[in-house]
Amino acid sequence: MVDILRQHLTKIKAPFGGEKVFKDECAFSFDNPESETGLYVCMNRFIGLGKQFVEPYFKKTGNAVFLHIKRIRKEIPKPADPPEKKITKLAIGVEGGFSVDDKQYEFEESHSVVVLPSWTVVPLPNQDIPDMVQISVESILSAEDASKMAEAAAMAGTWEGEERKVSKHAENLVQQDNGIKIPPKGWKCEKCDLTSNLWLNLTDGSILCGRKFFDGSGGNNHAVEHYDQFKHPLAVKLGTITAEGADVYSYEEDDMVLDPFLDKHLTHFGINMRALEKTEKTMVELDIDLNQQFGEWNVIQEAGSKLTPLYGPGYTGMRNLGNSCYMNSVMQVIFTIPDFQKRYSDKAQDIFSSAPEDPSTDFNVQMAKLGRGLLSGNYSKPPTETADGKGLPPNGIRPQMFKNLIGKGHPEFSTKRQQDAQEYFLHLVNLLERNTRGTDNPADCFKFNVEDRVECLQSKKVKYTNRDDFMLSLPIPMEAATNKDEVAAYEARKAAAESQGKKLDPKDLVRPRIPLVSCLECFAASETIEDFYSSAIKGKSVASKRNRFSTFPDFLMVQLRKFTIGDDWVPRKLDVSVDVPDDLDLTPLRGLGKQPGEEDLPGEQQEAQEVRIDEATVQQLADMGFNVEGCKKAVFNTNNSGVESAMNWVMEHMEDHDFSSPFQLPGQQNKKDSFTPNEESLVMIMSMGFSREQAIKALKATDGNVERAVDWIFSHADQLDTMETEESTPQQTPQCRDGNGKYKLVAFISHMGTSSLVGHYVCHIIKDGRWVIFNDEKVAVSEHPPKDLAYLYLYQRV
């Protein structure tokens, strides 16, 4: 057996040169060392392979020697009285967060060298194998897995939800010598009677209550009002001070911060932090408490129901990779759609056969891998003992390669922070457009065209424009609640209870109930544009704008805008119940285009040259954290009248579908065709061997972005020979699919938590005529699908 290895020594290598080593997961499937057949690592390229891919890989590459890793997982019996785990983070699946699996395991691992095509097995350890083989084996086993290294690189310098930055005010904080000394107890807000949620201002020693929380508890905002008046930046939460530190908030930086000089700052007011014990909950603990109460967390996860687990094809769970539940829910829903199944599962073998040398970096390979992993049933089997009786194989898939690739280079999706599922869906659509062409793009099933009609109310002339979209984003009109009397009665009972220092049972919560049809009416309603530049009268006018569908997609993704900004500027989520029908008819919302007797607004090129916007005001708004393109629109639409009016415009329009889209002055859209590329960008692309004409074409197609241009030019490699700098005929925009406007609900994604940046996502999908809940690894029959509390809904045309 050992002699056969000597025939392949010239192709056996050790990963000494920084090569990637994939030893935890197959590049083309979710087989891993714990799988029934283990994992095979190529000892030349260090690619991990499931057994079904070893022989095809050998035939394609000629690499015949593999390190076989087999790991057996055994559950460790729980102690009779296990210590209670302390929750320190508002997250699921990360250290300090809520558990997704409270079991503990131990592992046994065995190794061998396998040589193809005979599948000769050389057990390890073995003193007779050649030195080069021994060195390769030891190097592979000691190397860090490439997926873990990619995750660590992406996470470098990011925030998981607990780490805080040092405040810029800490080192040189000014403290007033006003003689104030803070007693060790008996604290009360200086402006009201509250004795909890109190904050000590570290500049003047005032003690004031904090913000009011989303559920009505908390404080009366007196500490915030004090900052607005005096601009003293730092405050510490009384009751959280210990020798280890405390909750410190910076009003100017609008975040919880670190104060390395906290001991000195507290001593100034007579406080010995080393002698204090914690008596109040930190802000993280308060958030956790709010979300552990009965409410949407239990309802959405169907807590209390006896959920029957499901196994087999299409019922595969996804492990939570540290706040990746938003990704898990979106991808589960995506792969119920035939377009995605056809491209990334049914024909996945075609994608594998043309994979690059490093499959972990190929978008289509990893999408196909995920599709087959979810739909094959190979990773969703009832929990039975293994054939040898030594352990339990894990269920569900761990999509680490996929997460690393999809999030690569993205400031948010590369981290372990919780993200918005709606933003992730649109990010995925963007990646699909960049990595597929023509009719091969499965995201086309979501694509629809919207007709925007604008009428100048003074001249009565109109302008029709069309835009493509992939998601219908709907506002939630709180005034349309059908149970206002019940909500008002509940709020009165709640206020009465709080005045007596009590709280109502969370089970008695009454949410405003909004019909989905009211949300659709808001989408279709005419909107008044006060500061509209009319080319018909060559000046400002008032216009009316309305939206309609030009086409209806095969699958309609609907978002309810639950995340908003409160009057106190604190992000929050609307806690509402929306009556969502199983069947939806959007036919009345189809656009009809320009009607007989309507006159077009004249061209605007000449007038647009006179329009200017105040860049200083734009910058002031952008410094507050708003999207710069939306800030430009705000300043333009308020006629350069100052920050306050522009800010009001931002607050009214920040949920608009096009708020963050590139701003163009009226009439400038037609100038888009006259593209002048940046010479440095041209040189960079031409240095890769492409012609000047091809480089110009790529930059024009990607708005001058070099990185996207390179991706674009490689994805259009088969068209390069026919590209021309000047097109003889205008390029036709691909037509959206179209059909009737009648739909049925087939899936929905729900969010639990106080904002999109914390909490947890689960999804419910109709499969085989029944609702199924997908909660990360757990897949089960849904007894009470909470359709009214969801965030994203998927409708299929019927």
Provide structural commentary:
The protein has 798 residues and is an alpha+beta fold. Among the domains are: 3-143, Zinc/RING finger domain, C3HC4 (zinc finger) (Herpes Virus-1, 2-Layer Sandwich), CATH 3.30.40.10; 162-279, Zinc/RING finger domain, C3HC4 (zinc finger) (Herpes Virus-1), CATH 3.30.40; 325-384 and 391-445, no CATH class. It is 27% helix and 18% strand. It is built from 23 helices and 26 strands. Strands 13, 17, 21, 22, 23, 24, 25 and 26 form an eight-stranded mixed beta sheet that branches. It has a five-stranded antiparallel beta sheet with strand order 2-1-3-4-5. It has a five-stranded antiparallel beta sheet with strand order 7-6-8-9-10, covered by helices on one side. The longest helix is centred in the middle third of the chain and has 16 residues, at 484-499. The radius of gyration is 30 Å and the shape is globular. Residues 88-95, 155-162, 290-294, 385-391, 604-610, 669-673 and 723-733 have low confidence and may be disordered.
Please provide a brief summary of the model:
This protein is an alpha+beta fold and 798 residues long.
What are its keywords?
single chain, alpha+beta, Herpes Virus-1, five-stranded antiparallel beta sheet, 23 helices, 27% helix, 18% strand, cysteine-type deubiquitinase activity, EC 3.4.19.12
CATH architecture of the domain at 3-143: 2-Layer Sandwich
Supply the CATH superfamily name of the domain at 3-143. Zinc/RING finger domain, C3HC4 (zinc finger)
| Share of residues in helices | 25-40%
For this structure, the quaternary state is single chain
CATH fold call of the domain at 3-143: Herpes Virus-1
Low-confidence stretches: 88-95, 155-162, 290-294, 385-391, 604-610, 669-673, 723-733
How does the helix and strand content classify structurally?
alpha+beta
Average of per-residue pLDDT values:
81
Tell me, briefly, the overall form: globular
Using DSSP, what is the number of strands? Answer: 26
Specify the CATH class of the domain at 3-143.
Alpha Beta
End-to-end C-alpha gap: 62 Å
Radius of gyration: 30 Å
Q: Compute the number of helices.
A: 23
User: Which band does the percent of strand residues land in?
Assistant: 15-25%
Main pleated sheet: 8 strands, mixed
